[in-house]
Write a structure and sequence with these properties.
This protein is mostly helical. Helices cover about 75% and strands about 0% of the residues.
Length: about 150
């Protein structure tokens, strides 16, 4: 489905590179969305480290838990991302905190990014996309780091 994939890729390009989010906010959102997907995890865990997360924080996210040692705004965004991936109404406490730290555009950008990567996760799982060779993965990570 080349036309569908082109459209999906264009949406992903906006989510990753056209949003009004910081690299840390982007990688946090992506890691929460991809926490159960080995393919995505291998691509984005190193980018999460580069954006400022610790390995312990990344491990907790992969286990489905928000790291309590994140600064309060980042912890709020982590909790927000977990709520989005659960596809349920965001509790008022988190919703109010998100509105206090992000602009309306950033809120939409963050929700779009999480939702996009939930869709990516579903496609990777359903289509059984294999992980690239270690050399190809390193090239991809270098490109992501340069363009992210």
């Amino acid at each position: 489905a080349p036309e569908g994939l082109r459209s999906f890729a264009a949406f992903g390009t906006y989510c990753r590179y056209g949003s009004d989010l910081t690299p840390l906010q982007r990688e946090l959102a992506i890691l929460v969305a991809l926490r159960d997907v080995t393919y995505g995890w291998h691509h984005h865990a190193p980018l999460g480290l580069a954006a400022g997360l610790t390995q312990e924080q990344i491990n907790l996210i992969r286990d489905g838990r928000a790291p309590r040692d994140l600064d309060p705004p980042t912890l709020t965004l982590c909790e927000f991302a977990f709520e989005i991936t659960a596809a349920r109404r965001v509790p008022p406490r988190i919703e109010d905190a998100v509105h206090a730290i992000l602009t309306p555009r950033q809120i939409v950008d963050f929700a779009l990014l999480v939702s996009y990567y939930v869709a990516v996760a579903s496609m990777v799982i359903v289509l059984d996309i294999p992980l690239e060779s270690p050399e190809a993965l390193l090239r991809e990570q270098a490109w992501q780091a340069e363009h992210g």
